[in-house]
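Discussion board: Methods & Data

I've been asked by a reviewer to show the raw model output for two of the constructs in my manuscript, not just the figures. I'm not sure how much to include, so I'm pasting the format here to get opinions. Each protein appears as its amino acid sequence followed by a line of discrete structure tokens. Is this the kind of thing reviewers expect to see in a supplement, or should I convert it first? Here is construct A:
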Amino acid sequence: MIAKLKGRLDSTGLDHAIIDVGGVGYLVGASSRTLAALGSIGEAVTIHTEMLVAADSIRLVGFARAEERDWYRLLTHVQGVGSRVALAILSALEPLELHRAVAMGDKAMIARANGVGPKLAQRIVNELKDKIGAAPAGGPIGAGGIAILPTGSFAADALSALQNLGFKPHEASTAVAAAEAELGDDASLDALVRLALRKAAK
């Protein structure tokens, strides 16, 4: 499982980048938002990845932030949302905007993405609303009144774990975000879940 690449940006295309890691070029599919965040050709880059293994191929999809990767995983678990559609959604919407749209049932916002019609947008809302917690305004608030959402590598897994234990989406989201803020983005899943459980139980 390739979870992250750290190297030099060799080149970019309309929907991909090539990352040179020790002389090996990795072709990584990506959203337009991630491609724009990578910087200039030749610069050092770190990109979070998801490895897709099929019967006849192995592909990498890359993300500038772990938060985007977490959303990609959530989106591709929705029936009818493949890799291409998930990347189109992440190209059209920031993770914060997507979180708000799903939490508030704003299917029109999600349908702004290429390849997403009203029916698919509604399905995305229906299937993800209970998994992602309250709208961002309900989470811990940072500077400027912007909500702090769980964004690290294991955020989605930790949220799922707490909800499976019976915590409400809003409670789980708030607890995981608080635990992540205390432990940092590199915390292990086990540590994140343990601390989030303590915070949610208070």
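Construct B, same format:
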Amino acid sequence: MWSKRYSPDLTPPWKRSAPVPEIPAEPDLVVEEVTTGFCGAVIRCEKTAQGPTVTLEDRFGKCRVFPMEPRGFLLDGRVVTLVRPASAPPAAPARTASGSLAVPGARARVARAGRIYVEGRHDAELVERVWGDDLRVEGVVVEYLEGVDDLPSIVRSFGPGPDARLGVLVDHLVPGSKESRIAAEVTAESPHVLVVGHPYVDVWEAVKPASVGIPGWPTVPRGMDWKTGVCRGLGWPENTGAAWQRILSGVRSYKDLEPALLGRVEELIDFVTVP
């Protein structure tokens, strides 16, 4: 005698039910429950002691809960089986604009004795835009010099030491330049000072042209103020403040900056924070 548990299926093939598609019950999916004709959008799915259920809301705002039975719903007139949506994969860790792992809810650290100096306000604003979150977590303050000529006297007044390192970012730091001579002077006086720089005439150039929506940075004739020459070359109004805000608005992360600047800022942050 065949037991019910192991009895073979003797139903003729032409009488067997055809398989129906399984559809994830995603929010806002509109279906019709086959036995009641209730039509509505999926609000939520729940796991209960009697099995999974789905809540539908009709166009009048009325909600009803139905068991997620096989072949229990119609989708665009087709019989379907609703199933619970797959769990969303864990979200990737949030990152700061510099690409570092974000620390949600972290408070700004009490400022270190060490500092990072940059040449001007635009440099400081660009560093804040990309590395601001990192600097607050590390307790590093960024100040600007309004030019590099006074750097030797500023370094002497600062009095750098093992627990108060000083990092300096300089524009147009190329061999033979005034900037390179000043950098050599201040670093020779103290091992607790690091001066690095990028090759660009101004920090504007460290922003990738594509991020600003331009084909490239124009060549400015010698003797002309560089920022003014850039505005003329690009056909922008000769308002350097407005031009800078236009440039800065195109910077959303480290990906909008040239590697020649990225590496130098990271180097300074490491220098003033590593014991």
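Answer (T.O., handling editor elsewhere):
This is acceptable in a supplement if you add a one-line summary per construct. For B, something like: The mean pLDDT is 88.
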